[in-house]
């Protein structure tokens, strides 16, 4: 990198001279991880429909059960391995599984059971890899560096979230699903070179340097503990014991309700509108691109201003209120165009408004709750709720018309809004 270009980076992102290469390493790591994952999302949605919309509840349940089994195993392994090595081993393991799916789809692309297994795999993979990526970067940079750099670094994740679905949309008909998985795996594996570089940089200029300068009285076991990934089971206990965390969990449960009912409606209407699986994948890819682009723009120019002017409560309530209106429209006009608009608005509202607000809620709790309880909510609470509401939708679909289900979702969204108002008020009091 030329001195002039490096100077521009330092001025633009408030970097110190030795941080430029690490910033670029972190930026492209996030770009590659998110690009790889968002290439898989449209494929997962297509496979979910191919496996039968009536069977989606089983896939949601299987995802929850897989999470229930994987979490304790992952927690045990992570307590034995340094976090800086954990991501490298996880990357290799996930890449091997991805290659297995690639070969299966190459030789038998129409196997519905491979598609169902892939749906569950991507749903679990998403939660662990995305969370682990940010956790690793938190281990690379010091607290002071993270406060300055994590904002600009997140642009790499956003750019990856836009690029990934575009690749899927343009390439699915040319290379097929096996080809998309192979490209995604190659992108994911390429992060290993960046990880190795960042670990080396960390020891000289990042958090590793700070740990070398720890006070002499700091026990070795405490250093080792700081290098490992805390278990999620502790988080479940904290949620039960804390009324504040319990309210956050309730908000998550009703967030899942709105998301799940709309997701099932999407699956049914997309299946009826697009009979070609490749066209379905292209639709999901385009929708992901629109959602990611809109979310970035709102996050950059709107979210912070709304939070500052109206407070966190407004952010928490805005999405469920919007869903009340959208579910009302779907109850009257149950058709694909309204559904497509509703899906885009719901996801943009979640990414740009509700999710940032939910992250702010955890700033009011201690560090242990911030990590353990948050991980428990992001895994068990969300995935368990997805499975529960999925079965409610499936059973309702057997005895009621889709517009009636949308009206039930409207009622649940009203409760969701009340929940957001209560937790927002509690946050303001802390």
From TrEMBL:
Coiled coil: none annotated. PANTHER family: ADP,ATP CARRIER PROTEIN (PTHR43596). GO terms for molecular function: transmembrane transporter activity. Keywords: Membrane, Transmembrane, Transmembrane helix. The keyword Cell inner membrane does not apply. The chain crosses the membrane at residues 21-40, 55-74, 86-107, 113-137, 149-171, 177-199, 314-345, 399-418. Gene3D superfamilies: MFS general substrate transporter like domains (1.20.1250.20). This is ATP:ADP antiporter, AAA family. Pfam families: MFS_1. SUPFAM superfamilies: MFS general substrate transporter. It comes from Bartonella choladocola. The keyword Transcription does not apply. InterPro entries: MFS, MFS_trans_sf.
């Amino acid at each position: 990198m030329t001195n002039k270009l490096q100077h521009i980076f330092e001025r633009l992102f408030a970097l110190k001279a030795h941080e430029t290469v690490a910033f670029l390493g972190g930026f492209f790591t996030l770009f590659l991880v998110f690009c790889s994952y968002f290439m898989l999302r449209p494929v997962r949605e297509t496979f979910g429909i191919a496996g039968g919309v009536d069977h989606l509840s089983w896939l949601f349940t299987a995802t929850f059960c897989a999470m229930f089994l994987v979490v304790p195993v992952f927690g045990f392994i992570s307590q034995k391995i340094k976090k800086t090595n954990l991501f490298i081993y996880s990357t290799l393991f996930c890449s091997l599984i991805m290659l297995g799916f690639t070969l299966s789809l190459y030789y038998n692309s129409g196997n519905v059971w491979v598609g169902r297994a892939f749906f569950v795999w991507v749903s679990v993979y998403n939660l662990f890899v995305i969370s682990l990526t940010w956790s690793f970067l938190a281990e690379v940079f010091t607290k002071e560096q993270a406060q300055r750099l994590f904002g600009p670094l997140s642009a790499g994740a956003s750019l990856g979230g836009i690029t990934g679905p575009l690749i899927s949309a343009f390439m699915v008909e040319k290379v097929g699903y096996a080809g998309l998985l192979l490209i995604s795996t190659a992108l994911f594996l390429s992060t290993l070179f960046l990880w190795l570089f960042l670990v080396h940089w960390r020891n000289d200029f990042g958090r590793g340097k700070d740990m070398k300068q720890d006070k002499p009285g700091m026990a070795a076991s405490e250093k080792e503990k700081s290098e490992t990934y805390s278990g999620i089971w502790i988080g479940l206990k904290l949620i039960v014991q804390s009324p504040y965390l319990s309210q956050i969990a309730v908000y998550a449960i009703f967030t899942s309700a709105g998301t799940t009912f709309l997701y099932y409606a999407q699956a049914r209407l997309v299946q009826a509108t697009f009979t070609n699986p490749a066209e379905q994948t292209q639709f999901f890819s385009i929708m992901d691109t629109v959602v990611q682009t809109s979310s970035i723009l709102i996050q950059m120019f709107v979210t912070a201003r709304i939070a500052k002017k109206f407070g966190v409560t407004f952010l928490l309530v805005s999405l469920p209120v919007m869903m009340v209106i959208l579910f009302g429209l779907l109850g009257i006009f149950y058709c694909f165009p309204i559904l497509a608009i509703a899906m885009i608005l719901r996801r943009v509202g979640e990414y740009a408004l509700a999710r940032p607000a939910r992250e702010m809620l955890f700033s009011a709790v201690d560090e242990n709750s911030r990590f353990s309880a948050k991980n428990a909510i992001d895994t068990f609470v969300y995935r368990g709720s997805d499975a529960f509401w999925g079965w409610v939708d499936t059973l309702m679909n057997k005895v009621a018309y889709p517009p009636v289900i949308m009206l039930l979702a409207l009622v649940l969204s009203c409760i969701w809004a009340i929940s957001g108002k209560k937790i927002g008020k509690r946050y303001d009091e802390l």
